[in-house]
Amino acid sequence: MSITFNGIGSGLDIDSIVGAIVNAERAPTENRLNRLETSTTEELSAIGQLNSALNTFLASVEGLGEESLFQSRSVSIGDRDLLDATAEDTAEAASYQIQIEQVATAEKIATQAVTSGTTEVGTGTLNVYLGSNSFAVDITSENNTLSEIRDAINDSENNLGVRASIINDDDGARLVLTSESTGVENTVSVTVDDDDGDDRDASTGLSQLVYDPTDIETVGDGGVTHTGLELNSAQDAIVHIDGLTATSASNEISGVIEGVTLNVLDAQNSDDFANGDTINLTVGNDTQSTKSAIENFVEVYNGFIDVVDQLTVVVVNDGNTGNLTGALTGDSTVRNIVSTIRNQLSIGVDSNPDDFQFLVNLGLSTDQEGRLTIDESTLNNALDNNYDSITNLFSGDGALSERLTDALSGYTGSAGVIELRQQGLQTTLNGIDDQREALERRISLTEDRLYAQYRAADALVGQLNSTLNFLTNSLQASRSSNDDN
């Protein structure tokens, strides 16, 4: 009887045998590591979502705690076509009746006309006055056309704020000078030091451009303008606030009402002014910004609760697949954070009046699902009539912002519970990688050992088969020999 194998040597399928044993050795540990990696990754992701939602919530809380939010002021104006205004937080809440007699304007003058912009006017020094101050522009044969004089004024590094241009009218080309600043103190004048020796001559030389109606350099002639024109006169803004008069070189008037900057846009018409009609300006608390901050706080809090619900959800299935739960269902950290926040939301501020110590007094309440809701009417009434109490609820010592920040400090930040937990989960994930490497090393050694054992067995069986074949052949040869005899 012979032993028959289909493979080399022993005929055993060593690769399949070793592979099956190795896989059976690897499977329990690999499955355990896969389950651990999946659950750890899901938990780490969930903790990250919780941390992000909590930080967003705390940012809104800190915004409500800023004193500047409740100190900011709003301004209402009866006629914004005539007047605009801004108020700093130092402004007192009050109403003012304002009349605008005139707006501040900038002076614009045109010098005597010459033939054209390319006409050579003369040489010397052009002195351009802005109020009582002046800057000098040297005019030579290289830049003495009217256009070149315009450019020399505009390009002067000493220019005090006068822009030059050219207008061509029926009489010719005129150099037009405009003050960049409003007010009677910023009138524009032009004198010259003419190289032809006559600084006031209207017919020849640089002196053709003189426009000096007040004899600003006191030469003694009472003033010279030649045929120049005042295109727009300089004037100050004049406003009357509750009957008191204020004059300003600028249409932006600050300091008249403490903490308020007026921006005069236009004057009242003469009839309205004469009749004593006024523009009402009211400085008050910026209730709209405060309301927006409260609404944002409620929205962000509800968003935080939505995230918590998603992470701790329990969904009961039909009995075939079991219950589905969130990654943080039953988690004590989540439970403690939510409990801490809700406890702080329910605490009152003793320093407020008895009827305004709690969030519910300004229209904020919790519904059956744990979310905050706003009663719009109650909130608006509180903003209009209890603004200081609203401030005390959210900002300052013992207010909601301070309490929540302190109560949650153990969970947030680099040393908080959430950060430490994230670090621990990441350490677990790193350890899984190390365990996989160790598993592969152990499996490799097991595989090498099994191959060595089965190869030895394969060689032994091969030798036995060879011996068996030899003996069988010998017996058959002996039997044939006996039969022949």
From TrEMBL:
<dbReference type="Pfam" id="PF07195">
    <property type="entry name" value="FliD_C"/>
</dbReference>
<keyword id="KW-0975">Bacterial flagellum</keyword>
<dbReference type="Pfam" id="PF02465">
    <property type="entry name" value="FliD_N"/>
</dbReference>
<keyword id="KW-0969">Cilium</keyword>
<keyword id="KW-0966">Cell projection</keyword>
<keyword id="KW-0282">Flagellum</keyword>
<protein>
    <recommendedName>
        <fullName>Flagellar hook-associated protein 2</fullName>
    </recommendedName>
</protein>
<feature type="domain" description="Flagellar hook-associated protein 2 C-terminal">
    <location>
        <begin position="234"/>
        <end position="466"/>
    </location>
</feature>
<dbReference type="InterPro" id="IPR003481">
    <property type="entry name" value="FliD_N"/>
</dbReference>
<keyword id="KW-0964">Secreted</keyword>
<feature type="domain" description="Flagellar hook-associated protein 2 N-terminal">
    <location>
        <begin position="10"/>
        <end position="106"/>
    </location>
</feature>
<dbReference type="InterPro" id="IPR010809">
    <property type="entry name" value="FliD_C"/>
</dbReference>
<comment type="similarity">
    <text>Belongs to the FliD family.</text>
</comment>
<comment type="subunit">
    <text>Homopentamer.</text>
</comment>
<keyword id="KW-0175">Coiled coil</keyword>
<comment type="function">
    <text>Required for morphogenesis and for the elongation of the flagellar filament by facilitating polymerization of the flagellin monomers at the tip of growing filament. Forms a capping structure, which prevents flagellin subunits (transported through the central channel of the flagellum) from leaking out without polymerization at the distal end.</text>
</comment>
<dbReference type="Pfam" id="PF07196">
    <property type="entry name" value="Flagellin_IN"/>
</dbReference>
<dbReference type="InterPro" id="IPR040026">
    <property type="entry name" value="FliD"/>
</dbReference>
<dbReference type="InterPro" id="IPR010810">
    <property type="entry name" value="Flagellin_hook_IN_motif"/>
</dbReference>
